[in-house]
Amino acid sequence: MRRIVGVGLGLISSLACSEPGSDRLGLYAQDQFQTVNGSCQQCQALPQGLWYFRNDTFALPQAGLSVSSYHANKRGADDVLALNPLALPALVWTGASQHWSRLTLNADATAVTTAEGERLQFNLVPKIATNRAYWNAETSHFISQGPLSVRGELDGQTLVARTVWPQRFKLDLMASTQPLQAGESLQSLVQFANGGARSPHQSRLLWEKSPGAAQQSSGKAALGILLNGAQGDDDEAHGGHFALATGRVGADGAYDTWLVNNYYNLASNSEKGIIAGVTPFDKYMGDLNSGQSFYRPSYMLVAVFSQPEIPSKFRPSTIAFSSTFTAMTLSMSTPVKTVQASA
Q: What is the pTM of this model?
């Protein structure tokens, strides 16, 4: 029997108001992947995906490992039933080749200090010209208030950040259960305080199977349903944005390395550089140009499972769907042919 340990709701506030990072990417071990920078003609991956990320940094499964794929000659339901739950995503958009955690940023955002005390100069990737929500002095003040993780590149003694994530944003594993009260609903929690754009990060335990079960969540598989707030100046997001996340709960409730299926229109050119694809949670939220947290609040309903079967089976099916979406969209808009990805 598959059991849900607990269900919680988190409000991830807007970001605008060391040692190597985690050894995981979602439900998978980090060492199951290899980092690729730019075009890779010899890589065994969906050609359409390689085309989209030809000017970026991404991760591909190591040779010989099972990879999620879709079959153009199968109905969607049949394709899902044939999926290997251990198969890896064919491509993960990491945006950077290096990942640090437990860094401390100084007040003027010019330097970071690692957990071991090493000091590095700190710089940011350039702002995309069409992006109207970027790092500013308020961001520096907010981010410097606690430990952070960074995805970026080391240029000599300068850390050039692509993604920045406050590590205090995590599940509260010691929280007492606060079920929905009379008159409350998930909708009312999302709409509270004008959507929570100016609210701090919150973690609320709505339900647990037995008292204290949620405190044992560390290491367990989880499924997150993400809703990003509506944005009036974005033609693709007047009613908000939807995404799905899977991973294992970190030792202290961390969820920054979970993998997110980022559903965006592949036929549009994003003013923030957003590309639909599978990406780490911290990048989805905290990329300096495309991160959701830089311009709107987000909400996530999380279910933690005592056994990993449901998230493990769910993840390949969503990846297969994304691969089909990527292949079909690009095939209709470019000369690249649709091909079946090898498993």
A: 0.86
Angstrom distance (rounded) from CA 343 to CA 241? 31
Q: What share of the chain is helix, strand, coil (3-state, %, to 5)?
A: 20, 30, 50
CA distance 155 to 1: 50
Phi, psi of 320 (to 5 degrees): -60, -40
pLDDT tens for residues 9-66? 555 544 443 344 468 899 999 999 999 988 777 777 777 778 888 889 999 999 888 8
Tell me how far apart the alpha carbons of residues 243 and 293 are, in angstroms, rounded to a whole number.
14
Tokens standing for 257? 């390395």
Helix (H, G, I), strand (E, B) or coil at 294: helix
* Residue recorded with tokens 């991956």: 45
- The whole-angstrom separation of Cα 268 and Cα 78 is 30
Q: Can you tell me the distance from the alpha carbon of 45 to that of 160, in angstroms, rounded to the nearest whole number?
A: 28
Q: Give how far Cα 116 sits from Cα of 56, 112, 158, 180, Å.
A: 30, 11, 16, 43
pLDDT of residue 235: 53
199 SS3 class: coil
